Amino acid sequence: MLGFRIAAQTSCLAQSIKKALHTAAEVGCNGVQIDGRTELPPAELSETGLRQFRKILADLNLRVGSVAFPTRRGYADPADLQPRLEATEAAMHFASRLGSGVLVGNLGPMPHSEDTSALATLHGALERLASVGNRLGVRFVAQSAAPALLLDELIRQLPEGTLWLDLHPASLISRGDSPSEFVDVAGRHIAHVHAADAVYDLSTSKGVEVELGRGTADFPELLGMLEEHGYRDWLTIERRQSRQPIEDFRNAVSYLRSL
User: Fold this and answer.
1) Buried b (16+ CB within 10 A) or exposed e, 81-118
2) Which of 74, 199, 239, 256 is most buried, judged by most C-beta within 10 A?
3) Would you call 46 helix, strand, or coil by DSSP?
4) Which helix (H) or strand (E) segment is 82 a member of?
5) Is residue 2 over pLDDT 80?
6) What local confidence, expressed as pLDDT, does residue 214 receive?
7) Burial (0-12, 13-18, 19+ Cβ within 10 Å), 243
């Protein structure tokens, strides 16, 4: 696993943010992913609070690997787009102040190819975010339910470096998609990885989240493919459906370090 760093998605731990930071360090993580909407909203953190937060991180030898900012609607939807963009830009500034170069957001539904108005809206929004991100050193990394081929096509239509992708194996498996095929098609655009696993239940046609390493995702293969694409960054552990999240996070760290 040489070259990868492990982060904990602190919102999964069901603890206060301060306690979650200590837990992340205790289970062996190098960093954390902070939720900038619900867990630590930028508007609620004063300069003094920011300095205190940075000191806790430094004392625990942790970094903020990424900031999550999942908007309720995507960026092709023109309704209330301006405040949504402004909020996303504020989150990018917040990520930069925390020392993170990654903001993970929700791309939203992909417009149909014939919907030129929605496509133009999406392109304009993403180029605006990229312009802000370039000044701050923060990449906008999109989560999307769209097929990898469509995402790859979208990225090719945009100026280079405008949009990056999040790899979330559990979400792909839950939709009946293959994580390895996603990396094969869009691996060069991946700028963040969620270490999350799942199995697909044929009887219900739904995915079920499971402990990392016990599902369908072949992480040794995925990490090898990512290395071939030059990815050497954060693996953010996510475990939302667990009665023992701390133990699962500890096991996940051990699993990833064994690869």
Assistant:
1) beebbebbbbbbbbbbbbebbbbbbbbbebbeeeeeeb
2) 239
3) coil
4) helix 81-97
5) no
6) 96
7) exposed
Q: Measured on CA atoms in the order 157, 120, 147, 242, is the torsion positive or negative?
A: positive
Identify whether the C-beta of residue 66 lies closer than 8 Å to the C-beta of residue 234: yes
Lowest-confidence segment of 4-8, 42-46, 81-85, 113-117 by average pLDDT? 42-46
Angstrom distance (rounded) from CA 121 to CA 78: 7
Long-range Cβ contact pairs of 247-253 (< 8 A, separation 24 or more): 248/211, 248/212, 249/8, 249/12, 249/13, 249/23, 249/24, 249/27, 249/29, 250/27, 250/28, 251/211, 251/212, 251/213, 252/195, 252/211, 252/212, 252/213, 253/6, 253/27, 253/28, 253/29
DSSP class of residue 84? H
H/E stretch holding 198: strand 197-201
**What was the pLDDT predicted at 203?**
86
Number of DSSP helices (H) and strands (E) in the chain, helices first: 9, 10
Per-residue pLDDT at 216 exceeds 70 = yes
Q: Look at the alpha carbons of 118, 134, 69, 44 in this order and tell me if their dihedral is positive or negative.
A: negative
Give residue 166's identity as a one-letter amino acid code.
Answer: D
